[in-house]
Specification:
This protein is of the alpha+beta class. The protein is built from seven helices and 18 strands. The protein is globular, with a radius of gyration of 21 Å.
Length: 380
């Protein structure tokens, strides 16, 4: 089961007229089992647009990712066009709307992946092809200027034995695993591509860009990443940003992510759609690192033993939360999975996460500001 909720942010105490987030939520059904209750795989992801046309970038990338993954899955499994698919970006707050099949937009009712599924290699290939084609196509969209607009993205394919993820930017995916004592531990599936990360700083500098936190009136950087940085005593100066190397006094754009789709004018500064890949076996012990090798045989034996010890305990033993930074800026990984486990369904979990994040933003900014927030939750 999986569901998504998105909410527009707040600016000057008013709801923003445009939600720049987007998400994709789709189950891929093999042609050999067109009526099967369990899909071959579930594709889910979130996108976070930025800049004047950020919403258009997020919409374009989400459509591209879904289309290419669907095509690659069809080639591997002879999947038909799925009956249940979601590409949502316009609602201020997502509302479930039942379609003719009885499923709801924003929610897919599949408890797990079926036996006929993509392999990890096929899943990785599908995601990599999707990211590559999306990156190429965004430069050729007619009528849209993406020179200073773009989007981050994280996309996951949930398989019977693992979760495969590809991401670019600071949208994040986290897996929560319930222990035998009822506690849960969050395992990050991705790492944020932030300008403050030492690896990203080195890459950006090598490409000809620079990482700064503030500029004086002459356009000179005040405190580069890794150095003391304050433009006034006792006042923080905000996140690290990527800027071009330009003469002092010349206005320069500043981007608070290190990798993204679009932002074509910033490509010479190292802002590129360079994705990273990770795979996490299903049922991996709580607290293990992303991608920790685990054999499928031992994995299934461990799951069966844990189920017997739990006496057939109801409720999900694992959750996957993918969300934009509007959520992660105010909730930790652990807080997010704990909230998700409290809910009775993915729909409730996604809505709860967004509501808690909105409350945190309101408290943090006295109601003046909140980022767009999107959360996709899958019960594994």
């Amino acid at each position: 089961m999986a569901a998504a909720v998105t909410a527009a942010g707040v600016h000057n105490r008013a709801t923003k007229p445009q939600n720049q987030d987007a998400f994709v939520l789709e189950r891929l059904q093999p042609a050999s089992q067109p009526q099967a209750a369990l899909p071959a795989a579930i594709l889910l992801g979130v996108l976070d647009g930025h800049g004047p046309n950020g919403h258009l970038a997020a919409q374009h990338i989400s459509a591209q990712l879904a289309a290419v993954v669907r095509e690659r899955a069809a080639q591997a499994l002879a999947c038909p066009r799925p009956r249940d698919s979601v590409l949502w970006w316009e609602a201020e707050f997502l509302v479930s709307i039942c379609n003719r099949t009885g499923s709801s937009w924003g929610a897919l009712g599949a408890e797990a992946c079926g036996a006929s599924s993509l392999s990890q290699d096929q899943a990785r290939d599908a995601l990599e092809q999707a990211f590559s084609q999306a990156a190429q196509s965004i430069a050729t969209v007619e009528g849209c200027d993406f020179s200073l607009s773009g989007a981050t993205a994280v996309a996951c394919l949930v398989l019977p034995d693992s979760v495969v993820a590809l991401w670019c930017g600071d949208s994040r995916a986290v897996v929560g695993r319930r222990g035998l004592d009822g506690s849960c531990i969050a395992t990050p599936l991705t790492r944020d591509h932030k300008p403050g990360d030492p690896e990203e700083v080195a890459r950006i500098r090598a490409a000809g860009g620079r990482v700064v936190r503030a500029q004086d009136k002459s356009g000179n950087p005040i405190g580069e990443s890794g150095e003391p940085c304050a433009c006034a005593v006792g006042r923080r100066v905000g996140p690290c940003r990527v800027t071009p190397n330009v003469p002092p006094g010349m206005p320069t754009p500043g981007l608070s992510v290190a990798r993204a789709f679009g932002d074509l004018a910033m490509s010479s500064c190292g802002i590129l759609p360079l994705p990273e890949f990770a795979v996490l076996p299903r049922g991996t012990a709580a607290g293990s690192s992303p991608g920790t090798p685990t054999s499928i045989t031992s994995l299934r034996a461990t799951q069966q033993a844990q189920y017997q010890k739990l006496g057939g305990q109801q409720g999900p033993q694992e959750v996957l939360v993918a969300a934009t930074d509007g959520l992660w800026d105010v909730l930790s990984n652990q807080e997010a999975v704990e909230q998700a486990f409290r809910a009775g369904s993915p729909e409730e979990a996604a809505q709860l996460l967004v509501e808690v994040a909105r409350e945190r933003w309101a408290a943090k900014s006295c109601g003046r500001h909140a980022d767009d927030i999107t959360a996709v939750v899958a019960f594994l």
